[in-house]
Write a structure and sequence with these properties.
163 residues
Length: 163
């Protein structure tokens, strides 16, 4: 094998050095700049994508914050509407209850007056009936007729004692 012959080592080393230098220069002048440009383009694209992602994140956070504000306002408005409706319905119920109470009070007063009139009428009739019963009882017991005025006076005296 000629490459292992010691006599051919110096030319092999020279050609090795020349080939290495040529390949090094080709890589340094052509290959590595292209790789560097590709890496730089990729880095710029990644940085641009990261910037876009940051912008989109900021926009999303702004939209979420606006949504949460709108939701909070809607909840507050709903609670306010609910409170107003509840207050209005309570006021209407209280007004109806007041009117019913007034009506019941008026009807109760009218019924009490009718009862008082009926009681007075009944007591008036009771006095006359009691006087008539007393006259009839006395006539049966004694056999004598008692004067209507005297029987009425006796009934009045008994009623005053009981009252």
């Amino acid at each position: 094998m000629p490459q292992l012959d010691i006599a051919t080592f110096p030319p092999q080393l020279i050609w090795l050095a020349i080939t290495f230098i040529v390949l090094y220069l080709l890589m340094a002048k052509l290959g590595l700049p292209r790789i560097a440009r590709a890496l730089e383009a990729r880095r710029e694209r990644i940085d641009g994508d990261l910037e876009k992602a940051q912008q989109m994140k900021a926009e999303a956070e702004a939209v979420i914050a606006a949504y949460e504000r709108a939701l909070a306002e809607a909840r507050q408005q709903a609670q306010q509407t609910l409170k107003e409706t509840t207050d209005r319905l309570n006021a209407e119920a209280a007004e109806r209850q007041r009117k019913v109470a007034e009506t019941l009070h008026a009807e109760t007063g009218a019924a009490e007056r009718r009862i008082a009139q009926a009681k007075t009428a009944a007591l008036g009739n009771l006095r006359e009936v009691a006087a008539e019963v007393a006259r009839a009882a006395a006539a049966r017991l004694t056999g004598a007729e008692i004067d209507a005025g005297r029987a009425a006076a006796a009934v009045d005296a008994v009623m005053r004692e009981r009252s």
